[in-house]
Write a structure and sequence with these properties.
Keywords: Membrane, Transmembrane, Transmembrane helix. The protein has three helices and four strands. The protein is of the alpha+beta class.
Length: 84
């Protein structure tokens, strides 16, 4: 079940110009993006309560995890694209 959930299928479309991922094209990509946004908001709330170091560490950790999963699940991978 876990393999079916995070298999090698693309979750994100490639960007037409530049480097990286475009918009999500599968429900897993949308779910990952929603969880990422919620996690960053939670990290921001940690900063608001005075736990600045923990909040910043949390933001860095969730951002790296999001980028790694987006890179792994982008159709065609991450490479420079110039519109062709």
């Amino acid at each position: 079940m876990f393999e079916a959930l995070i298999g090698r299928d693309p979750w994100f479309a490639p960007k037409r110009y530049g480097y990286g991922s475009g918009l999500p094209i599968a429900w897993q990509g949308w779910a990952l993006t929603a969880v990422f946004v919620a996690a960053i908001i939670g990290c921001g709330l940690l900063i608001e309560t005075g736990q600045v170091i923990l909040g910043i560490f949390c933001m860095i950790l969730f951002t790296l995890a999001y980028l790694l999963l987006a890179k792994r699940h982008t159709d065609g991978g991450w490479r420079w694209r110039n519109g062709s």
